[in-house]
Amino acid sequence: MWRPVRAGVLAIGSVVLCAAPALAGAQQVISTLDAQVIRLRYTDAVDATATGLSPALRIDWDNAMVRASGTYARFAHAWSADGILDANVFSPSVGPFSAALAGTLGGSTHQDGARTGTAIGLGRLQLKEGPVGAWLGAGGGATSDGLASHRVREGDGGVWWGTGSASLTVAAAPTAIDDSIRYTDLTAEGNWRGGIVELSAVAGVRSGSRLPLVASDAKSWGSIDAIAWLLPRVALMASVGTYPVDFTQSFPGGRFVSAGVRISLSPREHPPVGTLDRGSAAESSGILDFQLGPAERGGRTLRVRAPGAHRVDVNGDFTEWSPRAMTSESGGWFELTIPVKPGTYQMNIRVDNGDWTVPPSLPTVRDEFGGLAGVLVVQ
User: Which residue, 145, 193, 253, 263, is the most exposed by fewest CB within 10 angstroms?
Assistant: First the structure.
């Protein structure tokens, strides 16, 4: 058990040291607490009902992100607790490319004395162009099922698409545990947010030539989660689905249904919003000013001041992430009038077919792959 924990501390410590320049001031902190009732059926034979508390925390910097979550579950005659910590550091982008270092440390403990642990480190190469991206990575670490430690090697790759209100990710994760178990999980995850409602769905399938025979090891699984924010910091939530065996920690697969309440302990922002060094990236591209003004028939006019530029393009949620050329005006200004309703949008601009960047004075949003976009609020 202690071997994977030590490896995890080393992996997380390396990530934190790499992120040291950014630790001086977090851009955004998001924290929630879930209280729920869960009905489980696992190993195809055991039914159980539990009440649970699940805190979660996410901290974002310009070039790093840390997420932590845990669950304490109380059954009729027993209890269990588990937790996980993820840390990510992102390199500066070179065109559409960037790199990331990720570390994961997790474990569980149970009333009967059983314990598990996992510690994994990964390196990733990432590509992002507008609303579309891809990544490829590899790494490894160690896990414990409470009886023995095991070496784990993992691959990590996939593609994603996202806008301000919806996203879709397809990923493949080949895994080897010691020299005895090898399998690949292919998963698809979709998320959608509209008003006070948030929906997410996951579907997965597993293939492998060297898998142990386990009665509850379903080769496919899926789940649906729904959240409705009744108050700014209080939401009702419900989930239903199935999940596969976790061979790394010897957790059985099963089925579940749950319902509960989520309390946001920090101001609810979706997605999490931070700030850049005001205008530094934009100014390096020759962009000196950005303005939003009213237009006829309820539209809005975007204005960018970029003296010496020959062309300025805009893309964002309101253009379906398709670049739109702005019209050159006097004084180094470029304009674009768009029909857009009040709301919150993501956007970027570029000068003379250069890199996409966040307009000066706009707050920024960072996705989990390290990409940045400006957050435009239209009132």
Answer: 263
